[in-house]
Design goal:
- This protein is α/β, with parallel strands linked by helices and 583 residues long.
- 24% of the residues lie in helices and 24% in strands.
- An 8-stranded parallel sheet has the order 20-19-18-17-14-13-22-21. Strands 3, 6, 9, 10, 11 and 12 form a 6-stranded antiparallel sheet that branches. It has a 4-stranded antiparallel sheet with strand order 1-2-8-7, with helices on one face.
- Helix 12 runs parallel beside helix 13.
- It is globular and about 80 Å long.
- The mean pLDDT is 96.
- It holds the Pfam family Alpha-amylase.
Amino acid sequence: MEKAAIYHQPFSSYAYGYDSQTLHIKIRSKRDDIQEVVLIAADPYLQTEAGWASEETALRKVATTEEHDYWFVAIKPEQRRLQYGFVLTDTTGEDTFYGGRGFYENTPENRAIMDYYFKFPFLHETEVFKAPEWVKETIWYQIFPERFDNGNPELSPANVLPWGSKDPGRDDFFGGDIAGIINHLDYLAELGINGIYLTPVFEASTNHKYDTLNYFEIDPHFGDKEMFRKLVQEAHKRGIKIMLDAVFNHIGDKSPEWQDVLKNGEKSKFVDWFHIHSFPVTPGENGNIEGKNTLSFDTFAYTMNMPKLNTANPEVQKYLLDIATYWVREFDIDGWRLDVANEVDHAFWKQFNQAVRAEKEDIYILGEIWHDSWLWLLGDEFDSVMNYPFTQTIIENFVEERIKPTKMVSGISEQLMRYQEQVNHVMFNMLDSHDTARLLTRCEGDKDKAKMALAFMFAHTGSPCIYYGTEIGMDGADDPLCRKCMEWDETKQDQEMLAFMKKLIAFRKTNQKTLTYGDLVWHIVDDENRIVAFSRTLDDKRLTFIFNQGSEAKTIQKADVGITKEATQGIEVAANSFAILED
């Protein structure tokens, strides 16, 4: 028994309240080392004449990675208190007791010592992670407003280019605006979209608007507040939620606050709003050269036009929280996506959570974090993060073919085990965005590859997001080419891809509960033939997915994917394709 691989931690993703009555408990062991795990548990105060009245419950293996197995049990302590330990038995029959003080011989004497056990003192409903229920049913659509549609040419900047006249450069404007989004809400509703994520719409000098000048105003090239209010209202009429992008890590260098610092230096009333190491902060002086690590003030990356805000400053906190609550209270937005969220202090995000929840209890709080994010997902900061580790695992297998199916399945299993189950239910899953090359380009134009990757993503727990234009076969390399103008000429759209996406979205909506809550079982993970098959099961509903990444059609036996009904019949799966079975 490899004891060094065994791990459990109370008050983490290994032991947490799932709801007001239920605890979820997990334990990790070395892969293929343990054959049985039993939970020894009861209320710590439940004593009888014979001693502590513990009960035994077997855990089930729910995930396997390259290195580990994960075991799970859900338990409902009657008094919402739990004292517990584990008895683990390895493949040779050797067993051990494992508790809060470590490993002990599995004897009645050791199991009678209360100090050896883990403790979950009380299941407080206020400490249970709760995300908005509606997110689980949401299919997101990300829009880069400057490139979606020019609905009101009168608003366009003087240097606007004809729509779609060229591949975009970093500084090009094509005149996309909020009116253009409103014009196509029916299109989105017909597609099946019920959530729109907008990249920044606030006043800024660039086309991407991540260098905010005024958070309280819609950029004049996009429209005004009344036009934005109309967008929210019209979207809500169609059952579509609206999520805005908050850039609170930094601000634009043309903002009044930073301009005051440039003008007045150390005497500026905003000097403590930023992280300034020395003066002057003027471009070209004191090491302030774009892209260099000699800058005399903190920025996003080494980008001089994005000075970093000091969110520990009470004035900055009030300013940003006023912004966050204003757009919820006055315009009824449904979510905030938080840019560069991992570089802002946790104390501020806790304040942010409380402030926006006071305005709208079921608002969705989404952080842009590209790595393991458990510390932000404990219930008092974010509901979810942009699930880039999940994204990259799918891309590396299905698209780039850099990793084998076993590596992909291991990565996905590891990712699912990192967080509480409620967190996984609302994770923001996508395959491309304004920060990455488009899916079809990554697939080198192979639509079948793109379809497999999309279907695979839609089959997993979480809230899927489509980047604008993916549904009509748009391509584009890394920024700025991933930000091309949306193609509205139907003769230039891939109508077959559009039909596929409508069907996939409808399938997701029809089977949402199974795809959110259903047990995940991997049946085939074949590196040689590049075949992956798994099922999602909830109650009496079972969905089976088979993906054939190989260059030849394959016949899969039903028994091999856990289907007993008509098990003698094979399932033909074409090359570079997939099949879904419902039973």
